[in-house]
Design goal:
Length: 316
């Protein structure tokens, strides 16, 4: 079946599925209080058993997803920063737990482990200023404070190697090797700059390109190859974070990325559960002009946020 036909048929299904997952995942969360970068939120009233009444900072490091990037539907400019990303949701969820976080987003679309180190120029900063230099300066200035730092790097090191074509395995190997080599340096610099009350969380990745499974036999090959590559990246990310004594947000598990349990999608038929989740949590199964796009949608960002919050202390 041609991609355009499948995506059009799936679009309405994805919306319904996404809404269901969205409200299910929000069942225990009070209202969402989005905020812009460098702003505070007032804690939402928590249960009477909650003893948290803390204030701290949240430094959000990464690429486009760290900025809540979502498509605009405008050709040649199909992406913009939003206030509905996972960082905003982390602030809202922690607010419900009695924690007020002052968020600072410094991410840059397209950021890689090389560009954050200044080995390559990125789209946001003028060398010698880098996202990493801004992050370490910020952490030094807040050494005595309680804080959270999320690290969302690695995806763009293999993104050019993946769908919509067959995976370039040599390209993936180079990207994974670069992360294995350079991410420890990034973590070391961040941790040296941070004070003792800072909690780091490193993110692994779900695989939005599983959506290519819907494009027939060739799409299934692309989806499978992409998942293998994403698992290779996540294995390295998890290893580096754990060696650095950093908590890991298991995003692929939250998206059931390895689950091939058959589920039914209306008007499509039986598909693996990981494919259905990829469609529900991203813009990949959305037809033009908004899709296909590999960024998470609101549902996906909230799922990511919950994996981050699960790694944070329950009391501060």
């Amino acid at each position: 079946m041609r991609r355009s036909i499948v995506r059009s048929v799936v679009a309405a299904i994805v919306v319904a599925t996404a809404v269901a997952i969205f409200y299910a995942s929000r069942a225990d969360a009070p209202g969402r209080a989005h905020q812009s970068a460098s702003s505070s939120t007032t804690p939402i009233s928590a249960s009477t058993s909650t003893v948290n009444h803390a204030t701290g900072f949240y430094l959000d490091i990464g690429a486009s997803a760290s900025l809540g990037m979502q498509p605009t539907g405008i050709p040649a400019h199909n992406g913009h920063r939003t206030k509905t990303g996972y960082s905003d949701d982390v602030v809202s969820l922690e607010s419900a737990n009695g924690i007020t976080l002052d968020m600072r987003e410094i991410g840059c679309p397209g950021e890689t482990v090389q560009s954050i180190l200044g080995q390559l120029k990125d789209a946001c900063y003028t060398l010698p200023i880098t996202q990493l230099s801004i992050a370490t300066d910020y952490l030094r200035a807040h050494r005595s404070e309680v804080g959270v730092v999320t690290i969302d790097l690695g995806f763009n090191n293999i993104r050019p190697c993946l769908a919509p074509t067959l995976t370039n395995e040599s390209c993936v190997s180079q990207g994974v090797a670069a992360v294995q080599k350079d991410l420890p340096t990034i973590m070391s610099r961040l941790q040296r700059a941070a004070g003792p009350l800072v909690h780091f969380v490193g993110l692994e990745y779900s695989d939005p390109f599983l959506a290519y499974y819907l494009d027939g036999s060739s799409g299934r090959v692309i989806a499978q190859q992409g998942l293998v590559a994403m698992n290779e990246m996540n294995s390295v990310l998890g290893s580096v974070f754990r060696v650095s004594a950093v908590s890991v947000a298991d995003v692929p598990a939250a998206f059931l990325s390895d689950s091939v349990r058959p589920v039914t999608m209306a008007n499509v038929g039986t598909v693996p559960e990981n494919v259905a989740r990829a469609c529900a949590g991203s813009w990949m199964c959305t037809p033009p002009p908004f899709g296909p796009d590999d960024h998470p949608n609101n549902v996906g960002y909230l799922i990511i946020a919950r994996t981050v919050v699960a790694q944070l202390p329950r009391t501060w």
